[in-house]
Amino acid sequence: MESSSPSEDPIASVADKQAITEAAQDPATPARVAAAPAATRKLVYHAEVRVKVADLDRANARMDSLTRTYGAYVSDASETRQDGERQHQMKIRVVPSRFHAMLGSLNGLGALVSKTLGTDDVTAEHADVSARLGTKRALEQRYVALLSQAKKVSDILEIEEKLAEVRGDIESTESRLKTLNDLVAYSTITLTYFQELPLNAPDAPVLSFGSRLVQSFYDGWELLTGLVLALVTAWPLLLGGALGLWGLRAWRQRRRQQTAATSA
């Protein structure tokens, strides 16, 4: 009697399918992506501009008008005042077709201090992320199909675990693709404009009569202690002067006595 062939192991089938899918996703053997035509390249434009203005409030009003004119929007803004300077910083998002025109309009805000422009080509990264996302979605569908066919609890748990991992990868890949699409769709201008403020000297404090009286007493005490310390410091000079004066008086007295004796 012929022996019956063993039935197919579902876990082995899952492992085989997973191995095939992981081989397709292996970063060491990425799929070749053909060079995109110039018209379809994914370019990210960005610039950093710093401008000195005469009136910050007028510059704010001017920027509100410019963003409306070019159909742009401000994704982030902040204003600070410190070290004799009032500064406003904003991040402007504008479509690439109006990027350079808006940059030119910023020169009218005031005196240009610095301007830095850059372009990033993300065509290859965008194609790679899109391909990976398609592969992960296909893998998700395979796990869903296997899950519907699984009978054992252990098989179901293992497939659900793998499915959760794949769906987590899909979410992160979709997030990166969304970020790339946003950077390509809207160029970024980081604008900083500032106004120098005059440094006013602080007013002298107004002292009351009582405060002035206390201050005068303190000044007098300082003067008295200063004189005492000066006398103590100059004691060699005082001693020398006293000895010199005593010697001079003694000499004059002897001279008068000699003169009186000669006259007699």
From TrEMBL:
Domain of life: Bacteria
Transmembrane intervals: 223-248
Keywords assigned by UniProt, alphabetized: Coiled coil, Membrane, Transmembrane, Transmembrane helix
Positions in coiled-coil regions: 156-183
Domain (DUF4349) ranges: 41-248
Region (Disordered): 1-31
InterPro entries reported for this sequence: DUF4349 (IPR025645)
Pfam families assigned to the protein according to its UniProt record, in alphabetical order: DUF4349
Protein name: DUF4349 domain-containing protein
Biological source species: Hymenobacter tibetensis
